[in-house]
Amino acid sequence: KEELQAQIHRLQTQNQQAEMQQSQVVESLRQEYQKLQEDNRQLLQTRQELESERDNARKAAIDLVLSVIYYRDRLFTQLEMAGGESTGIGERVLKSMLSATEQILRDNQVTILRDGRAFSVNYHETVSVKITDKPELDGQIASTIREGYLFRNQLLRCQQVVVYQYKEPEA
Question: How many CB atoms lie within 10 A of CB 148?
Answer without folding.
Answer: 21
